[in-house]
Amino acid sequence: MSAVLTIVRAGPLTSIQDEGRFGMLRHGISASGPMDGGAFAQAGALAGGGRGGVEFTMAGLDIRLARGQCRVGFAGGDFTIRHNGAALDWPGAVTLAAGDMLAVTPGRWGNYGYLRFDADMDMAPVMGSIATNSRARLGGRVLQAGDEVALTGGSAAVPVRAGPEAQDDGPIRVAWGLHADLFSPELRQRFAAAEFVVSLRLDRMGVRLEDAGRVFADAAILSLASDAIVPGDIQILGDGTPIVLMRDHQPTGGYPRIATVISADLDRFAQLRPGTPVAFEPVSVEHARALLRSRRT
Amino acid sequence: MAGSSAPQTFPTPTIVPLGDRSLLVRFGTALTDAANRAAIALALALDREPIADVVEVVPNLVSVLLRYDPLVSPATIAGELRLRLFALGDAALATAHWTIPVIFDGPDRNEVAALLGLSAADFIAAHNAAPLRVLATGFAPGFVYCGLHADKLVLPRRTAVRSAVPVGSVLFAAGQTAIAATEMPTGWHVIGRTDFRNFDPQAEPPTRLGAGDSVAFEAVS
Predict the structure, then answer these.
(1) d(Cα B19, Cα A287) in Å, to the nearest integer?
(2) Could you report the per-residue pLDDT of A76-92, keeping only the tens digit for each?
(3) Hey, is the C-beta of B59 within 8 angstroms of any chain A C-beta?
(4) A-contacting residues in B 129-158 (Cβ below 8 Å)
(5) Is B138 in contact with A285 (Cβ distance < 8 A)?
(6) Quick one: pLDDT at residue A159?
(7) Would an 8 Å CB–CB cutoff place B21 in contact with chain A?
(8) Which residues span the domain enclosing A247?
(9) How high is the ipTM of this complex?
(10) Of B5, B32, B35, nearest to B176 (Cα)?
(11) Number of domains in chain A
């Protein structure tokens, strides 16, 4: 099976992703991969499991199937999707014939949505992955209007029906971070009690938070030896600005990190739109792992 | 200093969780020669004898990151780690020796030399006097930190950040020399450039220099 789709309209941060480019940290390369890994997997299950997918942002996305036929699965956040003008349920799946249009526009919530296909995205892996790393400008591809994307090969995987993920509106849970002990107990308490706001400055590398309560205004911490960063790390810049580091994070950094968003909540955090209030709740690593295990079953 | 082969005691490490999928074995909070040697030695030992369910081992300046299968208990991995740490010796760190030719004509060369109270020629000579060790790769693809220079060659970073320096820029700050393997922003002093390329995404592995390698910088014109 093969098909070619044309990108008719794309926002500036539309990219090709797969599960991620793991194992390359020692070469200075973070794994990238989807900002909302659960939604990416859900779209894949709905499509029938071809390699890779398209990640798009609140700007939405319009595509046309130039040639061939393919099944498309879509998920992530809440978007409005139209197939040749007819509205479909989100998340969901649809089979496209040559000439068909798929138009995605933003809905009530979420920053990232995914289109996946029943065929593989036809491109050479870079270091074992087709994920786009926006920071290192590696692999994959940033998609723009006019681009063509080829799909090739079939998938024996049977599409599954999946409902929308339950939305949990509670605080974002964190484990205390690498440098938590450099912050005073009072400051850690203020961090856990404070309400931050997702700022307009967010991308695949990190999400800056507005700190109206100026929790970290006076947190003078001397420069540190650069050390390993993991996705979800909350680092505090010299001026007190908190940044949650995301999938295209730099592999190491020297700013202090007070906490790390747990794996089970990182997708949910990635989907919070600018202007959304956010609070952080410290939990144990053991609890974080139990949540992750229950998510997978 | 790099090149020393005298046995030494490693700093006592702490094992801390980094999120719910990684452990960090940290030999200190400040960059010291001993902490860096220990991190490299542990990473090499874990490469030679991997711990089951550890999916990635990454040497950093003063620590080693172990990314594990999140379905496995980190307590099990920490237990295995303690056994490895107990047996950790200061085995020969240098796994490879490199000579890297550098044209020392960077825009900050004269300022750096002046700040150190040296002529440009004396600065270059002092910079190249002894081989350095690759302390770690980090920050950006193939970006290597080499060090540690003697105390008399220690300068802080620039206050102003350059938004982009070209591939091959040779950078100097904080008692270290680094090589930009990609175009990148930097607050380090640019002292020269090299044709040596440490990153090729099509190569396997994609970088050439590894933590613990010995690097001799050689002035060329």
Answers:
(1) 11
(2) 999 999 999 999 999 99
(3) yes
(4) 136-143, 145
(5) no
(6) 67
(7) yes
(8) 172-296
(9) 0.93
(10) B32
(11) 2
